[in-house]
Prior knowledge:
187 residues; mainly alpha; 7 helices
Amino acid sequence: MTRAILxxxxxxxxxxxxxxxxxxxxxxxxxxxxxxxxxxxxxxGVAGAGGFLLAAADFPLLMSFKLKLLxxxxxxxxxxxxVLSERLYILHIFELAFSDVEHRVKVLEAMDDWDxxxxxxxxxxxxxxxxxxxxxxxxxxxKLAQLLPVVGAPVGAVVNWRLTAHxxxxxMMAYRMRWLAREGQxx
Length: 187
């Protein structure tokens, strides 16, 4: 499902922002994160209030919100989400946000000096199994509580809000590190 969402995401992705300072970009990124947190929180609350069937719909909706946020952040930092290497970077950000410590170390190593590395030419080279397992293990308990009667709505709203906020902050830090590395090379 993530692969399908990722493949189709460029149909609604903004063009890369050009000629803006880091401060201007990050103000726009903060506003984007706020908007997606609100949308994800509202969706999680509705899904949690709707019982098991709506809670089952929460996963693909939340995943699409998160990926859309990452594509928007990439564009705000001046990167083109339609390029395969950028999609891989976006997947690494997702992994970085929702993985255990041991896996995060591997992801950070893969992201280090990203713009000067060679990248796979196909998404099939990405380790989808590890991606899925890390994400599942990271969010299982939080999302399971959303299925509980009565408390599902507030739990769903808070969990989605926090997961989206965490992903946004992680993306902001990843793109800031990449920006500063690129600026340091040009200096």
